[in-house]
Known about the structure:
By secondary structure, this protein is α+β, with helices and mostly antiparallel strands. The protein has 2 domains: 2-175, Ribosomal Protein S5, domain 2; 180-308, 2-Layer Sandwich (Alpha-Beta Plaits), CATH 3.30.70.890. The chain is 38% helix and 26% strand. The strands form 2 sheets. Strands 1, 2, 3, 4, 5, 6, 7 and 12 form an 8-stranded mixed β-sheet that branches. Helix 5 crosses helix 6 (207-230) and helix 6 (207-230) packs antiparallel against helix 7 (233-249). It is globular and about 60 Å long. 49% of the residues are buried.
Amino acid sequence: MKSVASAPGKIILFGEHFVVHGTKAVLCSIDKRITATSQFVDERIVRIRSSLGEAEMDIDSLDNLENVQQKFMRPFFHVAKKTLMENSTKQGIEITIESEIPAGVGLGSSSSACVAVTASVNGLFRKLSSEEVVKIAIQAERTIFEQNSGADSSVSTFGGLVSYDLKSGFQPIPSRNDLSFIISNSAQVHNTQDVVRQVRQFKEKNEDLFNRLCKEEMDIINNAIISLRENNLNKLGLLMLKNHELLKQIGVSTEKIDLLIKEAKKTAHGAKITGAGGGGCIIALVDNSNIKDTLDNLRKISDCFIAKIDYDGLQYV
C-alpha cells in the first residue's frame, strides 16, 4: 500500500520581516509542488529518500532526533514517530520526497515538504483533515525552527491568497485572481536566521526610522489587498516596487538582487524580494503582454521560471 500527498510552495507578496514587528504579511501558494509517497516496510526503521539525500533511523531511536545529521529531515522523522506511536504498528515506513521547488531560496520548500509528508504518512492509516495536517506540520517544523509562525505551512495546506499577522493569525483574501509571476533565483546562499538577526539589530540601532518604515509597510499592504481584490496589476506592481525599497533600507537586498529587480521592472508590472532576502529569489508580476520579454531579460542573468497562484493547497493523490 502506498499513500501519496502533495503540497504547494509559497511566495511572500508583501510584509516579510515587518510582519515580525506588527504589520501584516500577504502570502500565496504557487503551482510548484512537493510530493511525498509513504509505504510500509518490514524492517523496524524509518527511511527517507529525497533529491537532497537519504537518511534512516531505527524506530527505537526516534526519540533522539538531534542525532539526525541532515537537520532538514528532523521534521519528517518527528511526523513518522508521532504517527507510528499513535497507531501502534510494528512495521516501518519508507518516505520518498520529490520536489518541483528549489530548496533554500525562500519558496517554502521545507514547509511544503512537512505538509506533504504529514498527510502522506498519516494516510497509511487514515486521511487527516487539512486542519489536522497543518497542526502536525507546524509542530514538526518547530523541531528545527522553534519560533516558526506556521505561516508557510498554513498557506501550503489551504492554498490561495492569505494575509497574516501575529494578533489575528490567518485571513483568506477573497480572490480568484489568476496572477502570474516570474521567480528569479539570485543563486546567492542565505541563512534566514542570520538575516532576521541582522534586521533586529537594524531596528535596535534605528528605532524611529524602523517604526516609520513599519507604518509605510502597513499602508502598502492595505493598498495591496485592495488592489488584489480589484485585480489592478499596475497598482499592485508599483506597490511591490515600493515594498522592495523598504526592504533595501533595512539592509536585506544585495547587488545581485537589485540587478534582477532593475531588469525585471523594465517590462514587468513590478518586482521585489520574496522571503528573507540576503540572497534567494525575487518575484516579478507579469501578464500575457509582458511575460515573454520579462522572462527573456531575466534568463540572461539568472535561472527563473513562471509560477501562478495555487488555489488547491494540500492534495491526496
